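Dear U.,

For the methods section draft, I wanted the exact inputs and outputs in one place so we can describe them consistently. I've listed the two proteins in the order they'll appear in the manuscript figures. Please don't edit the token lines directly; just add comments below if something needs changing.

First protein:
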Amino acid sequence: MRPWAVAILGVLGCLGEPLVSTPEGEPGVYPVGGTMLTSLAAVNVVGDARRDLVTVARGDLTIRILPGNAAGTFAAPLALAAGNDARRATAGDVNGDGIPDLLVIGHDNVFIMRLGLGTGRFGDGVKYPLRNHGNFILVADLNGDAFDDVVAVHDGSGNPVYVTAYLGSASGALHQVWELGTVYFTSMGLTAGDFDADGKTDVAVALGDNRASVLVFRGLGTGEFAAPLVLPTVSSDPRTTDGTTALAVGDLNGDGRDDLVVACYAFSNRLVVRLSTATGFADPVSIDLPSPVAVALGDVNGDGRLDAVASNLEHHSLSLLNGRGDGSFEQPAPIPVGPEPTALVVADFDGDGSADIAVTDLADHRIRVVLRRETGSLP
């Protein structure tokens, strides 16, 4: 495997109306002023109710924010010192004041929370120690009290994967309410959904472990979680992993239960679709792709069904798979982007009711935004 591929693993016929991809040097290609972009989130950080793009620049340990506007374009980047050995950043409202707060998780066994002051400003960071290296963080209301809560995944240095949950509060302080140490190693992704349709937030953790591909934790509605459901690997060799690098969550077949799509790179180069059922998860279905390192779900073609988008690190492209609404997908269609596309998000940036795509690039350290338009052609 190529050295830069190892680095990624360590950190990391279209239906409907077409997409328009903007070439290099034109609107749609955004330098962020930092290098080694390791993550991407589409969240409201500035506080104007629009989605902004947030990435971590490992080159100088800064958080880079592209403020979004109503046209689906983005303003000049803002830079904030991470305050830790940052890996990923996101935002939420942990104290319920209507102003986004910033959360940054780092490889130095800590995550930092900064309360929002409005207009993209933040207070001093408060550090929350973790048992080992912080890898992933998400924000969701785990107990229905209108305060955003936090789930962190931390592992490494010979230690297994730990999952820890914190509840938000009116003061902005986060209070640990639950933690579980698993027997598995190497977290590769974290996301939230409702897999059993009980109205409570569940979480799923992707693994780079040959014994398991995904751990699904059923939420109890209190901030605590039940023991995980273990989804096995699909590798034909029990000694190797699936090459899992990312996962995405959404209801692919309209049954009210969220489903999983897992990106597997290098060892198998495929997406693995796992539909949730009343008794757990159906047998996995594999879809071959060139070199997928990230995956996201959204209604890209405006037909009311979730589509999948994957970034192909070694093939300078995205793969768009239009959903059929029954949990299956049409054949993948390529969208050329930058030289080494990595982290991506799918969200409606221009307010037209359909999802757009944003992706970071490992080679040129830029974010590219692909907007769905009423005119144009698929590149």
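Second protein (the one for the lower panel):
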Amino acid sequence: MAKKDLYINYDIESNFWGEPGTNGQHSFYQLIHQGTQLIPCDFIGFNHSINPLSNHQDLLISNVFAQTDALAFGKTRKQLEAEGVDESLIPARTFDGNRPSNTILAERLTPATLGALIALYEHSVFTQGVIWGIDSFDQWGVQLGKVLANRILPELKSKDSPLAHDRSTNELLRRFRQKA
């Protein structure tokens, strides 16, 4: 398929991002639990920590298992009522569940394990691209960013060079040039 003929008339998306352990629960787990879009996710845990501290590994793994349990089964109005939760709070504390997740539990984080995880996600990206009919590694948007960055770079160093970008970029460049 030629580039000019590339057209996908359905939603495609795949993002790989995350946060170690309990750091993520206040930043994005809430979105995964009660957001308006279904976000399938993977949880990666290890039986043994590479930096053992007291019971921290057990705390982290218990959170992996708890989050996947909550995503799978949620919390119903009936359960909340049985717990005596105030009626006004029930809508905010109800979770549908049935949110897909995978749990990958490895023995420990080693170079080999990390390599296997990277290979897994690279293969996943490749496979999705084949299914969607796109080249997942042909990233023209990223390339455009590199071209623009090379155009902007000399303007960062010279306070006198003219700025020929949009108003927002020009203003950001002016502010950057004024740094002490």
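Candidate sentences for the figure legend, describing the second protein: The two ends are 51 Å apart (CA to CA). The first strand starts at residue 41 and ends at 48.

Thanks,
Y.
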